[in-house]
Amino acid sequence: MSRIIRNESLYNLGVVLIELWYGKQLSQLHHPEDGPIDSSDARTSLMSCWNTADRLVDELYSEAGGIYSDAVRRCIRCDFGRHGSTLEDLSFLKAVYEGVVEPLQRNYDYIPRASSPGSDGHLV
């Protein structure tokens, strides 16, 4: 699985981002074509979960838009255009920041906020 999940921390972040978008756990988003989920075979179950996450990365583009989806794709597939995949490598860490953190921040900043009531009860 280390060839597929190149960085477990980033993969887990990608899974969380998928779960946040859909409001469901990854197991609830599993389709039969993703493979079997077998509690007695952790390797098969892990592969099926990766297949689910990988499938959802492609589906996110039509639902969440390019910025969010690109960040999720980079996490799930550890796709940073370089061979290194450890967060201890400063150049890789910089690529993660530029490819995941900054885009997610831009995406978050773009979301319109509901106005909050001021001290006089009127929306500000």
In short:
The protein has helices at residues 8-22, 42-64, 66-77, 90-110. It is mainly α. The model has no long low-confidence stretch (mean pLDDT 85).
How is the secondary structure organized here?
Elements: H1 8-22, H2 42-64, H3 66-77, H4 90-110
The main pleated sheet reads as:
none
Report the total helices. Answer: 4
Structural class: mainly alpha
Uncertain residue segments: none
H/E series, N to C?
Answer: HHHH
Structurally, the number of domains stands at 1
Rounded average pLDDT: 85
Provide the descriptors you would attach to this structure in a database record.
124 residues; mainly alpha; globular; DUF7580; DUF7580 domain-containing protein
Structure, explained:
The protein is mainly α and about 120 residues long. It has one domain (about 10-110). Helix content is about 55%, strand content about 0%. The protein contains four helices and no strands. Helix 1 runs antiparallel to helix 3 (about 65-75) and helix 2 (about 40-65) packs antiparallel against helix 3 (about 65-75). It is globular, with a radius of gyration of 17 Å. The termini are far apart.
